[in-house]
UniProtKB/TrEMBL annotation:
This is Ubiquinone/menaquinone biosynthesis C-methylase UbiE. It comes from the Bacteria. Residues 17-86 form the BVU-1015-like N-terminal dimerisation-like domain. It holds the Pfam family Dimerisation2-like_dom. One of its GO terms (biological process) is methylation. InterPro entries: BVU_1015-like_N, COMT-like, COMT_C, SAM-dependent_MTases_sf, WH-like_DNA-bd_sf, WH_DNA-bd_sf. The keyword Amino-acid biosynthesis does not apply. One of its GO terms (molecular function) is O-methyltransferase activity. The keyword S-adenosyl-L-methionine applies.
Length: 354
């Protein structure tokens, strides 16, 4: 579905939207503070509504603080006010209770917010210049294991929320041909490997990842008692001079290839082709922005691309499926099967050597 072919807004709606963009940082931070001070939650707990004075009484926030925050919340659409009594809106209810919203919100605040300020430099240099707010790292993946705990927690919650929700849908497809050996590239904390072990009694999984993530995965998998069925390949996939493991019935890449540029993806896929056993398949799970059911799904992915530019590596993105399939073809594969709308907007591509 193409949501973006025509301009659907009237002039009045357009000037309103332009103001939302101009004030976006104030809207975002006001909402965060309303949530973190407990103001929104306090009002939600009183369906009959509360006055500003009652909110001051029930929270640790000053009279002035409550006044500016609650007035701003009216314009944002988080509160309504009639006869000085404030009530939460449905939008506030989602801010407070919806997991998807919270994961996106915390990711934007804790991981991206400060670094986005130098987006122009990232675009100019093709480097994640925003990552400097956390130290001197070439990519976010090198930094992840060293992030402050809250930042790492928000990154992992964001990453896992999107991939975890698809695992149940894709396990039967990946295990239809009973792979005995599976390479999980970008295996991260080992969540997919654990799903595989629980789904199939025989499969041996090799996780290919950077050192910091291999340590996290090793700890998680050993703790769960699957140490005998896991192997690790600790390496940087971008270094083509390093050996690539071989002899796999299945290669799994979930939310992995979006971490790389066009040329890097083609290089990785070419090396995957050499690593497959005869009759083996490559399984790619990716959220493509053109394969979303709702326009807001496409919106979220297009904005996530900007995180890749400013914070992750400066040269990757959430791709359009047709551009991505061009890389698959160029690397010598064909798409044998495509399943869309898995979990939260993921697509599974089953690829076979062409
Ligand atoms: C976005 S996460 C995806 C994690 C997991 N597959 C999922 O679906 O949730 C990308 C993973 O790729 C790994 N990665 C990124 N760059 C890498 C590189 N150059 N070499 C090896 N692994 C890399 C990261 O460490 C991280 O674990």
């Amino acid at each position: 579905m193409n949501f973006f072919e025509t301009d659907k807004l009237t002039a009045l709606q357009s000037i309103e939207k332009a103001q939302w963009i101009a004030f976006a940082p104030a809207v975002f931070q006001t909402t965060r503070v309303l949530r973190e001070t407990g103001i929104l939650q306090t009002i939600q707990q009183h369906p009959e509504g509360l006055t500003q004075a009652q909110v001051v009484e029930k929270t640790n926030v000053s009279k002035y603080g409550v006044r500016v925050l609650m007035e701003a919340a009216l314009g944002i659409g988080l509160l309504t006010c009639k006869d000085d009594v404030y009530k939460v809106t449905k939008t506030a209810t989602f801010i407070l209770n919806d997991k998807l919203t919270q994961v996106n919100f915390d990711f934007m605040n804790d991981v991206c917010y400060n670094g986005l300020f130098t987006l122009d430099e990232s675009i100019q240099n093709g480097k994640p210049e925003g990552l400097k707010v956390f130290g001197d790292w070439p990519t976010l993946y090198r930094a992840l294991a060293h992030f402050p705990p809250k930042v790492r927690e928000s990154w992992l919650a964001f990453d896992h929320y999107y991939s975890d929700a698809s695992f149940a849908d894709v396990l039967p497809i990946v295990f239809k041909h009973k792979p005995k050996s599976l390479l999980d590239i970008g295996g991260n904390t080992g969540k997919w490997a654990l799903e595989c072990f629980q789904h199939d009694q025989d499969v041996v999984v090799t996780i290919f990842d950077l050192p910091g993530q291999v340590n996290m995965a090793n700890k998680n998998i050993t703790e769960k008692g699957f140490g005998d069925r896991i192997r690790f390949h600790e390496s940087d996939i971008l270094d083509e001079s390093l050996p690539f493991p071989k002899g796999f019935d299945a290669i799994w890449m979930s939310q992995f290839l979006d971490c790389f540029s066009d040329e890097q993806i083609i290089s990785i896929l070419k090396r995957c082709r050499q690593a497959l056993n005869p009759d083996g398949s490559v399984y790619i799970l990716e959220p493509f922005w053109d394969c979303q059911r709702f326009q807001v799904g496409a919106f979220a992915l297009q904005q996530t691309s900007i995180y890749f530019t400013a914070m992750a590596n400066g040269n990757s993105q959430m791709y359009h499926s047709e551009i991505f399939k061009g890389f698959i073809k160029e690397a010598g594969f064909m798409v044998a099967e495509q399943k869309d709308m898995l979990g939260v907007g993921n697509t599974l591509l089953v690829c076979k050597p062409a």
